Amino acid sequence: MTTQKHNFYLAPLRGVTDSVFRAVYEKHFGQFDYILAPFIPTIRGNRVKDYHIRDILPDNCNDPKRLIPQIIGNDADGFLLLSRKFADLGFSSVNWNLGCPAPLITRKKRGSGLLPHKETIEKFLDDTVPKLSIPLSIKTRLGLDSKDDLEALIPMFNNYPLTELIIHPRTGAQLYEGTVDIDKFEICLHKSTHTVVYNGDIVSADNFKYLAGRFPNVNRWMIGRGLIRNLNLLKELRNEHTQIHTIYDFLNDLLSADPNHSHETKILGRMKEIWRYLGTGLDESGELGQKIIRCESISEYQKIVDRHFASITAGR
Length: 316
Ligand SMILES: Cc1cc2nc3c(=O)[nH]c(=O)nc-3n(C[C@H](O)[C@H](O)[C@H](O)COP(=O)(O)O)c2cc1C
Prior knowledge:
14 helices, binds flavin mononucleotide, 2 domains, TIM Barrel, single chain, 44% helix, 8 strands, alpha/beta
């Protein structure tokens, strides 16, 4: 029997997994095999300015060998412009977002809003793929309203040299509600000739073991909200030792790590976004998270966090 080497990817969570989060996370909890950066919208005009792509610049602690930049949009020229810049910066692939479910995005035929439009996708791929100097991967859902969109697209995707197809088996209409459709994932997996990455609701080592057992040919797994809820999840999936105090140190580091000297409201905003998930992971009643979401200053925030972790240490 061969032992499968599993590769773990950090999912892009816009507003959470920015470059500051990624650097501080990896310092405390270990490295991902790959990281998909939150999306960057296509740019009009003919120049990419640093502020468009600040979050993925290699100076901002980004490792171009493991970080994959992602673009959202349906404009081939804008996509090529950004991809050329990524290639110049040393990135080895670029990802196209066909999964975003936000109505403001899907209404403009972007993200999962493109999935019912096979001809538009095909034309976009014809206009971009031959001109790209780094290869393309796609992150997608099962469809926009129907679970059948992706299945219908896969024979066409098979005609293009994609590095991988990342599938989150929900529809766009589902947003993040309901359950992932594993059976439909399986159908798409078998129809695709590309390497497939599984993404969606991996929240524990047990649930990962189930998925890995069910899909023995998959060895790439992307984790998002489950990781923010349980910051030790990456270690747990790798069977590595975990320690509760690391979470406290991580939170303190994240609070003080801000190369852009952001305003207190922005820093607090990022911490609250993390606590939306982490709160339920640390305290099932949800009270702790609620307290944090209501707090109005960093000092108030810090007091709540200090008290919480002191009580855990005292209770041991
Ligand atoms: C707050 C938030 C922001 C997200 N931002 C992105 C994004 O920028 N690009 C993308 O492809 N997916 C984005 N996603 C989707 C996630 O990458 C992932 O596909 C989804 O959360 C399912 O995986 P999970 O169950 O492991 O979280 C976002 C999801 C959330 C909740």
